[in-house]
Design brief:
This protein is of the alpha/beta class. 42% of the residues lie in helices and 12% in strands. The protein has a domain at 10-177 and 211-236 and 289-304: Rossmann fold (3-Layer(aba) Sandwich). The protein has helices at residues 19-30, 63-66, 89-110, 145-163, 183-193, 212-224, 243-254, 265-274, 278-285, 293-299, 307-323, and strands spanning 10-14, 34-39, 50-52, 71-74, 115-119, 167-172, 175-177, 209-211, 232-234.
């Protein structure tokens, strides 16, 4: 790999080819930082900036990838899916999210790596904020296999850091959106583009989001800041919005009028439960707010993109994607 001008600290990234990973590597390139990716299989996109480690789990050998590394940013994970068809979903999540993370941290500590930044999830806090925004100090209350294994991985990292010189930093984002987004956010973009009437005009929820470019910047702050050692931070754009406000923002970015009609949240949730989509409905009707004040105060971080800017970038990507 060719040395990049800038910081002498070399960064290993897992999940570099994914949604967040692509934003992070682009931000690191813009900053002139030296990084390399640990991949499960060869990626043409990453060229010679990768080391293949195979599947991530309890038996992964990270030794070659960790050679000469100062900091690891661990993004790779078995991600949350609404309809998991594994025979034992919890075991499948644990193999990658818990055991894979634990082995990586243990080998990183043995290799003399200075810091490991772990991308966790607000699901560690829970599925809905009640009465006040989530903070880092709230008791964890994960409800699904993804959230449970992210919490277990956080605990494993803290235990390893307590007995080694490895510094750990945990970052918990809410829903991440931006170019490359998938899942419910992409489906909602499609519905707005098609002008589908959506039954959310009566919803008065509040949800925190984070634009992928803002998340990449926050990850870089966690790589560098001495004050981040041993800390857990929540991160968001800082502009909580309701579902109808989000749809209105999407429509405005597309140059379309929002098409919203009123329906009580109770009725929406009941109807969704009858067809096995209660979890999806709760993400559109319930509230999940976070307080990212600690990240801002302690690391001096602030989001570079507003919600409107993030939605505009996402819609531009969406249109480019449709044209190819």
């Amino acid at each position: 790999m060719v040395k990049i001008a800038g910081s002498g600290r070399r960064i290993l990234i897992t999940g570099a080819g994914g949604f967040v990973g692509q934003a992070l590597t682009a931000a690191l390139d813009s900053a002139g930082r030296d990084w390399i990716a640990a991949t499960r299989r060869a990626s043409a996109q990453l060229g010679n900036r990768q080391i293949i480690v195979g599947d991530i789990g309890a038996h992964t050998d990270w030794s070659a990838a960790l050679r000469g590394i100062d900091c690891v940013v661990h993004l790779a994970a078995r991600t949350h899916v609404l309809h998991d068809d594994s025979d034992d979903p919890l075991a499948a999540y644990r193999e990658i999210n818990l055991h894979g993370t634990t082995v990586l941290a243990q080998q990183a500590a043995a290799a003399g790596v200075r810091r490991l930044v772990f991308l966790s999830s607000i699901k560690v806090n829970g599925e809905a904020s009640a009465g006040h925004p989530f903070t880092e100090h709230d008791a964890p209350a994960p409800e699904d296999a993804y959230g449970i294994t992210k919490r277990e991985a956080e605990d494993a990292l803290h235990a390893i850091a307590s007995t080694t010189d490895l510094e750990t930093v945990v970052l918990r984002p809410p829903l991440v959106y931006g170019p490359g987004v998938k899942g419910n956010f992409l489906r909602l973009l499609r519905l707005v583009e098609r002008g589908m009437p959506l039954p959310f005009a009566s919803i008065r929820n509040r949800r925190s989001l984070v634009y992928v470019g803002n998340l990449a910047d926050a990850l870089i702050s966690c790589i560098d800041a001495p004050a981040a050692r041993g800390k857990t931070y929540l991160v968001s754009d800082g502009e909580d919005c309701s579902t109808p406000a989000l749809i209105t923002g999407m429509a405005a970015a597309m140059g379309k009028p929002p098409r919203l009609w009123p329906c009580p949240a109770l009725l929406l949730n009941l109807g969704a439960a009858l067809i096995g989509r209660r979890a999806e409905a709760m993400r559109l009707t319930g509230s999940l707010q976070i307080d990212a004040g600690s990240l801002r105060r302690e690391l001096g971080w602030s989001p570079r993109y507003t919600l409107d800017q993030g939605l505009s970038e996402t819609v531009q990507w969406y249109h480019r994607r449709r044209q190819t």
